[in-house]
Amino acid sequence: MGRQPPVGPPRWKGNDVHFAIGSSRMTRRAVRRVQLRGARVLLTGASSGIGRALAHRLAAGGAELVLAARRAELLESLSDELAAARHSRPHSIPTDLGIPGAAAQLGADALQHFGHEIDMVINNAGASLIGAQSLIGDDSTARTVYEVNFWTPLALSAALIPAMIARGSGTIVNVTSTIQSVPLPLLGGYYGSSKAALAQATRALRLELAESPIRVIEVVPGATDTALRDIDELPWKNSPPNTLPPVSPESTATAIVRGLSMGRRRIVYPSYSVVPLEIPAVGRLVASVGGRRVDTQEAIGSSGAR
Ligand SMILES: NC(=O)c1ccc[n+]([C@@H]2O[C@H](COP(=O)([O-])OP(=O)(O)OC[C@H]3O[C@@H](n4cnc5c(N)ncnc54)[C@H](OP(=O)(O)O)[C@@H]3O)[C@@H](O)[C@H]2O)c1
After folding, report:
1. Would the CB of 20 count as within 6 Å of ligand 1?
2. Which CATH number is 33-305's, of 1.20.120.140, 1.20.1280.170, 3.50.50.60, 3.40.50.720?
3. What domain of life does the UniProt record list for this protein's source (predicted)?
4. pLDDT beyond 60 at 218
5. What does the pLDDT average to over 12-16?
6. What does the domain layout of the chain look like in residue ranges?
């Protein structure tokens, strides 16, 4: 009797896999570098901050971009800037990712724009909410934070992974935060917990797709000088605690592109932000000590979302 063909799930052939050789076969690890030139990339949260700076870096590296955010005029002005710099003009898709279903529609629209061939999605859009859980509970503002920060990356991944698998390659990039490990009062309940949930889902997705040609990357920014900067908005009893100054969104974007080109699976910037991620007790201590300086009583009287 002839040999039967193997039955089971398809075996993937990585098309641009480089191996970093460790001290033995057991420590051999695949390093899959992201090539930007000609890459078709969907970038959410492109209208401001890290996303806007990242759009500049990606375009300069030769990527073709679809940009998403709510503020259409900012997406258009960004497209104008990139075209004026002689980069490929991006396609803008204004959308409110706080609305259930919007992410799946965005994925479908991006696929259509790229002719069903997409190389990377960068789930960068983020929403914050500072307020007391004891008042807000699960109201619509709280649910919107999870819609933007958690459900949108999962929905976009699911919308795009089949097309990536059909092509034999693709990269999912989820932007979380060091706040995932620092459960400060009024910030950890919604924003922080949504980022912790996304970090966990990102690691699980990487394992789920380990035998596939899809790369799954977590970007973990620390304090970056943008409109979303976490701790400035907290109601401090006196002045905010002394922390290291935030880094610029441009330097964070540069670190992301460098990490992608080096094939990193997790990109943490600035590098000292890795401490609470790897030593969770440090994050809890920072939250506990810092949390005593937060005026939670005042917040219970004035919770609000933005
Ligand atoms: N800044 C920090 O210190 C820091 C630290 C750790 C992690 N991060 C993460 O970095 C990412 C970028 O944030 P950023 O610091 O650059 O802040 P940002 O300047 O406020 O950018 C947030 C982006 O998300 C978009 N966005 C927010 N809500 C949206 C919605 N409902 N629908 C569609 N787009 C929406 C915004 O666009 P529109 O307003 O035009 O919709 C904007 O482009 C976020 O995921 C954030 O959590 C930031």
Report:
1. no
2. 3.40.50.720
3. Bacteria
4. yes
5. 44
6. 33-305
Q: Are 109 and 94 in contact (CB under 8 A)?
A: no
Give the separation between CA 240 and CA 168, rounded to whole angstroms: 49
CB count, 10 Å around CB of 168? 14
- Does ligand 1 come within 6 angstroms of the Cβ of 252? no
Q: How far apart are CA 188 and CA 88, in angstroms?
A: 39
- Residue the block writes with tokens 């990139």: 82
Global pTM reads 0.91
CA of 7 to the centre of ligand 1 (A): 45
Q: Is the pLDDT of residue 23 over 80?
A: no
Residues marked active site are found at 190
Give tens-digit pLDDT for 99-117: 999 999 999 999 999 999 9
Q: How far is the CA of 209 from the centre of ligand 1 (A)?
A: 27
List % helix, strand, coil for the chain (3-state, nearest 5). Answer: 45, 15, 40
Strand partners, 18: 31
Please list the residues that pair with 45 across neighbouring strands.
none
| Structure-token pair, residue 278 | 């790897």
φ/ψ of residue 238, rounded to 5: -120, -120
Q: Residue type for 108, please?
A: A
Rounded CA gap, 299 and 38, in Å? 48
Rounded Cα gap, residues 228 and 127, in angstroms: 8
